[in-house]
């Protein structure tokens, strides 16, 4: 189990400018004490930033390596064969999934489409992850965010997502080998539908950041909404790809426990919107 982080937080403001308008980029340094399930050293410095007032908070991930795929023999054929991935360069990944607060900014300027809302508490709407997002819809948001920030934003690759979700662990879940509603919003034990129990209080997407962060400082890498990644679908690693389908990772509020494992893979057509589809963003450094 990841020990609760002891944090000493310092803030710095770096004056930045993009085009003719000035904005501030916030850099936050968190010193984290990480428990034994994480491979990152104790007192690792965690750096987060936002490129603009409208931009997501980004977490800089450390370089490293990991074994990708079904490490415990509890997965499906599409999670095999297991192979080693070296993350030789650092990237920044959004701390949480893209929220309605962020999506609405893109809608207001005519760059994104207003999406149907089927689930969730309207009072907490702006804090919930945007849902009913197709892979094609993510392209509009990424283009808008790139323009307003002056930096190229994209979806994660499958390997980047699993590396970030595992956060240095080899267990079935980032917190251990057993599913736990203390760490994620997911569905019933047998398909299908939402379930509320313990810290998991939602039969639908919950407010982002409602559960403890993993060892890399990321929230909701398991459950809440499934997250689109960049990759075309393949029935196994190294097999033929079908780019009419893209990969989804992380599972959702309606997923069975098996689907919220870091190794789990799912697929969806490019233009399909479902109430458990969402995404988060990545930026190269």
Lay out the secondary structure.
Elements: E1 9-18, E2 21-32, E3 44-50, E4 58-60, E5 64-68, E6 83-87, E7 91-94, H1 100-108, H2 135-149, E8 153-154, H3 158-166, E9 226-234, E10 241-249, E11 266-269, E12 277-278, E13 282-284
Parallel strand pairs: 9-12
Antiparallel strand pairs: 1-2, 2-3, 3-4, 4-7, 5-6, 7-13, 8-13, 9-10, 10-11
Oligomer: single chain
Kindly report how far apart the N and C termini lie. 30 Å
> SSE order in H/E notation?
EEEEEEEHHEHEEEEE
Structural class by secondary-structure content: alpha+beta
**Strand residue content:** 25-35%
**Name of the CATH homologous superfamily:** paralog of FGE (formylglycine-generating enzyme)
Strand order of the largest sheet: 1-2-3-4-7-13-8
Low-confidence stretches: 1-43
Distinct helical segment count: 3
Question: What is the typical, i.e. mean, pLDDT?
Answer: 85
CATH topology descriptor: paralog of FGE (formylglycine-generating enzyme)
Helix share of residues?
10-25%
Anisotropy-based shape: globular
What would you say the CATH architecture is? Alpha-Beta Complex
| CATH class descriptor name | Alpha Beta
Number of strands: 13
Q: How many whole angstroms does the radius of gyration measure?
A: 18 Å
